[in-house]
TrEMBL record:
Basic and acidic residues: bias regions: 330-340, 508-534
Transmembrane region(s): none
Protein name (record): Pseudouridine synthase
Matching Pfam families: PseudoU_synth_2
Feature: compositional bias, Polar residues: 316-326
GO BP field: enzyme-directed rRNA pseudouridine synthesis
Entry-linked InterPro entries: PsdUridine_synth_cat_dom_sf (IPR020103), PsdUridine_synth_RluA-like_CS (IPR006224), PsdUridine_synth_RluC/D (IPR006225), PsdUridine_synth_RsuA/RluA (IPR006145), RluA_PseudoU_synthase (IPR050188)
Domain Pseudouridine synthase RsuA/RluA-like: 126-272
Ranges of Low complexity composition bias in the record: 394-417
């Protein structure tokens, strides 16, 4: 079935982003895909690096979703508990502790571009898709149903197995398996570097005309922001770049990228190292964070002389967290206090696998502050929360795991239960007490401030997986994205030179929702086999 990639673009959606933001109320932009919030309980056990540290400090430095003020509220209200009991933000974590949390999950909207299924091969058990930017492949952070794997289930009735991943902000080609056996075979091809990958990017400045190879190791130094830098302690990484176009009006280049290894943010960081970051990269392309040279040549790697080692930071905090027997820290002692610079820098140092320079820590701090400001958590001060019954009420909706909080560390490490459990189904009534005053713009179930809709242009970066080639499955490719044209009108939707993309005909909508993963897939294949046997067909066309 031949379909235009722009068939879903309405005249209203084609307006400029500024006009559209004024025209569409939150939750009604046709260029965005939304999902109704739902209650989500989960449990996790204390990790070694958390031992001896205060609960609020660990939660606010380890998790990505909310501000320190939010997590303090969650602890004091009982939404987040330790071993099923309300715990002070000053509580010092021990090896036998279990963290319980229940949230009213507000998944961020994503761009309203479908996951396009380009090919299905049932015999060899793989599919080829084109992933839109803004959608992660797996469940991560605040995303669960707005992921490639879940959207394939809900939109097409396809249960896919991802063997490699693209960053959430990156668009382009992916090959997924249709069975666990096929996923292992494909994963081996990627692991053995038998898959040739080619990407295309739009970058800042005039990229050199000759082919350039960057061979610099990469290391993730901040889990909260997912920040990767070039460091000798990192994993080997190698990328080959070649300029294929130049937009003189915007002073931006179109660059073909061939990663010879598959590291996190590899292309993005190697382009930044050359002084040509991706034009709209919110992590590696902002002069306000990286300076006028945009991080060219990498960051300073020499730890500042006054920098305290991770061991010393942990020792200091564990010592200061020690309380006399029988005494109990008061949550009110920290209420309303922010995180000072020394503590902030210490938190950053603790989350890094290496000691960091002052420049590196300041970059991470800036990125974290920008995220908090963008989410506007100051709105929390506008309302008083009384939510002590939340965890207990929601716990009744979920079956007990039967695990004891005193279970040994080794036994827990072998437990099959994941950190994230299934969502609570149905329209479960809110267990939270409604505040006396709820300002406009707050959720009427969990009473958190609702963020404004994002501008669709900010949900992706100009990086696209163009083609994959494997010896077993052959070569697969998408057309060039519209933003790769040298003379470009700024509309990123669609493909260069008006090209169209061929999609296969697959089930969608309500029918897809009835498909029950493995059992239904086996039943479908059995029916297909019987039909082919009776009609004389020999294979998938």
């Amino acid at each position: 079935m031949l379909r235009s990639v722009r068939e879903n673009v309405t005249p209203a959606a084609a307006e400029s982003s500024a006009a559209a933001q004024h025209r569409y109320p939150t939750g009604h932009d046709p260029r965005l895909r939304y999902i109704k919030p739902y209650w989500w309980p989960y449990q996790t056990y204390v990790k070694e690096r958390w031992l001896g540290r205060q609960l609020l400090e660990v939660i606010s430095s380890e998790f990505r979703d909310r501000s320190v003020d939010y997590y303090r509220h969650a602890l004091e209200s009982g939404v987040t508990r330790i071993n099923g009991v309300i715990a002070s933000p000053l509580y010092v974590l021990k090896g036998s502790d279990r963290l319980d949390n229940t949230v009213h999950r507000h998944e961020p909207p994503v761009a309203n571009d479908p996951v396009r299924v380009l090919h299905i091969d049932k015999e060899r058990e793989f599919i080829v898709i084109s992933k839109p930017g803004s959608v992660p492949v797996h469940a991560t952070g605040r995303y669960f149903r707005h992921t490639v794997l879940e959207m394939l289930k809900s939109d097409y009735g396809i249960h896919g197995y991802a063997v490699n991943r693209l960053d959430r902000l990156t668009s382009g080609l992916m090959i997924l398996a249709l069975s666990s056996k096929a996923s292992r075979q494909l994963a081996d091809e990627f692991a053995n570097k038998e898959v040739k990958k080619e990407y295309v990017a739009r970058v800042k400045g005039k990229f050199p005309n000759e082919e350039i190879t960057v061979d610099q190791p990469l290391l993730t130094v901040d889990r909260q922001m997912g920040l990767v830098i070039i460091a000798p302690e990192g994993k080997d990484a190698k990328t080959v770049f070649l300029r294929i176009g130049y937009d003189a009006e915007r002073d931006e280049s179109i660059v073909r990228c061939r990663p010879l290894t598959g590291r996190t943010h590899q292309i993005r960081v190697h382009l930044q190292f050359l002084g040509h970051p991706i034009s709209n990269d919110p992590l590696y392309g902002m002069a306000s964070v990286w300076g006028e040279n945009l991080g060219q040549g990498g960051v300073d790697l020499v730890p500042e002389e006054s920098s305290t080692s991770v061991t010393d930071i942990l020792a200091q905090r564990q010592s200061s967290n020690a309380t006399p027997s029988g005494s109990k820290p008061k949550a009110a002692e920290t209420k309303g206090k922010g995180v000072d610079e020394e503590t902030e820098m210490g938190n950053i140092e603790l989350s890094s696998p290496i000691r960091l320079s002052r420049q590196a820590k300041e970059i991470i701090a800036k990125l974290r502050r920008m995220k908090d400001e963008a989410e506007d958590w100051v709105k929390w001060k506008e309302v008083i929360f009384t939510t002590q019954q939340a965890q207990a009420s929601l716990a009744q909706a979920q079956p007990s795991t039967g695990e004891s909080s005193s279970a040994s560390q080794s036994a827990r490490s072998k437990a099959s239960a994941p950190d994230l459990s299934d969502p609570i189904h149905g329209n479960h009534a809110s267990p939270l007490q409604r505040p006396d005053f709820l300002p406009p713009g707050f959720c009427d179930q969990c009473y958190v401030p609702l963020p404004d809709d994002p501008t669709p242009e900010t949900l992706f970066i100009y990086l696209h997986a163009l083609s994959y080639t494997t010896e077993r499955l052959g070569k697969w490719a998408t057309p060039m994205p519209r933003w790769t044209m040298e003379v470009w009108d700024g509309d990123w939707r669609g493909w260069a030179d008006g090209q169209e993309i061929m999609e296969v005909g697959v089930r969608k909508g309500a029918e897809a929702e009835k498909v029950e993963e493995a059992d239904s897939r086996e039943a479908d294949e059995k029916v297909d086999g019987e039909k082919k046997a009776s009609s004389g067909e020999t294979g998938e066309q």
